Each structure stands twice: as structure tokens, then as C-alpha cells.
Amino acid sequence: MPIKTEDYIKYLTEKVVHYMDTPPEVRKEQRSLHRSAREPWHVRWFGLVPVSVLLWWRQRRRKKEHPHP
Prior knowledge:
The longest helix is centred in the N-terminal third of the chain and has 17 residues, at 5-21. The radius of gyration is 23 Å and the shape is elongated. It starts with a helix and ends with a helix. By secondary structure, it is mostly helical. The chain has helices at residues 5-21, 24-36, 41-46, 49-65.
């Protein structure tokens, strides 16, 4: 269902007004919270494959360093 142009302009206007009414300190704090909650770059770019390979590699190295008797 397509959005009517008038509704879209109204939505954008509300967003801009809300943004302008928010104090700069609050906006800065929200931005920093959003950045800290983001996933690492390799997960965002490539998904879970690099993470799983990294975990596997670390596990492999630990087993080499401390073999079980």
C-alpha cells in the first residue's frame, strides 16, 4: 500500500520538528548510546561467519597450548 504524498510530508515534518525540539545534549547522548549498541563491523558487514571462524580459531589455539592428558 503506497503512502500518500501528503501523509509522507506530514510524517517527515513531525520527525524534523521532534528532532529540532530535542536538546542537543540529549541528541548527542542518544547517538552515543546507539553507537555503543551496534554490532562490530565484521558482523555488520559479513554476518556471523567471521565470528564463528574467529571463535573456532581461538578454541583451536587454546587446545594447542593446553592439550589434555
